[in-house]
Amino acid sequence: MGATGAGQRSRTSRLAPGPVWLHLLANGITWPLDNLAPPVFPFASAWNRAADAITPASLAALFQKYSFEAGARNWHLPETQIEESAGLGFGVTILLGLSLWVVLIGLQKARPGACRAALRPSCEGGLPRPWLSLLFVMAKLNAMGSARYLASYYPLLSMGLLLSPAQGEIVRRKWWRLWAIFSCGLAGLVLVISPARPLWPAEWFFGTLRARG
User: Fold this and answer.
1) How far apart are CA 1 and CA 124, in angstroms?
2) Of 101, 140, 198, which is closest to residue 21 (Cα–Cα)?
3) What is residue 193's three-state secondary structure?
4) CA 73 remoteness from chain centre
5) CA-to-CA separations, 136 to 69, 133, 147, 164, in angstroms, rounded
6) Within a domain: residue 100?
7) Residue 164 counted as domain residue
8) Torsion-angle region of 151 (φ positive above 0: left; ψ -120 to 50: alpha; else: beta)
9) Do 158 and 119 meet the contact criterion of CB atoms below 8 Å apart?
10) For the packed helices 174-193 and 90-101, what is the interaxial angle rounded to 10 degrees?
11) In b/e form, how buried is each residue of 83-92, taking b as 16+ CB within 10 angstroms?
């Protein structure tokens, strides 16, 4: 427990150095990327090389100066998602985005002014407060795995956006249900092939095949 406490104190002391704009820039890119990262991303190496190439040297130096952890500054993506860095998830993030797009764009085309009506519930009853809290956290954190730390925020952040009566219609549509099932399948895929605790015994399977020639 003493070692854990010391480690936590060491990590906490590094949460807030550096200018606010630098934190907002890093987290404003890192957190959406972490939530949109596919559960299996075979092009991770190419993506990571491109991310390193387009990051200005002066910006990389600032991240290094203010002790940003690697996962919070280099915008790299892993080949396979693991729980330490997993966020809301690719499938659920896309589903929320599609739902919001249908509400704001689809309704606006059908009935002018419906967009404002759809957003009104998210602006009432204190629902903007989680977004203000998120902005504060973005201005402080410089640690990797932040997409996982935000787990308690996701229901509060999406609640106001999903209060529109149009959501009751969207969830009954075939495309929405198919994507929801697909998202569950993606989560199941990661559980099966997770390198740390694979449900599919790959080593035994290939070892048996190799033994049998």
Assistant:
1) 44
2) 140
3) helix
4) 15
5) 19, 5, 15, 26
6) yes
7) yes
8) alpha
9) no
10) 170
11) eebbbbbbbb
**Residue 10: inside a domain:** no
* Contacts with 97 (C-beta within 8 Å, 6 or more apart), sequence order: none
Q: What is the pLDDT along the chain (213 residues), one digit of tens a residue?
A: 444 444 444 444 456 578 889 889 988 888 888 888 888 888 989 999 998 898 888 888 888 888 888 878 888 888 888 777 778 888 888 888 888 787 776 555 545 555 555 555 555 555 678 888 888 888 888 888 888 888 888 888 877 767 767 777 788 888 889 988 998 888 888 777 776 776 777 778 888 888 887
Helix (H, G, I), strand (E, B) or coil at 105: helix
Tokens matching residue 101? 């797009």
Instruction: For residue 62, tell me if it sits in a domain.
Output: no
Q: Which domain holds residue 179?
A: 90-203
CA 149 to the chain's CA centroid: 10
The count of structural domains within the chain is 1
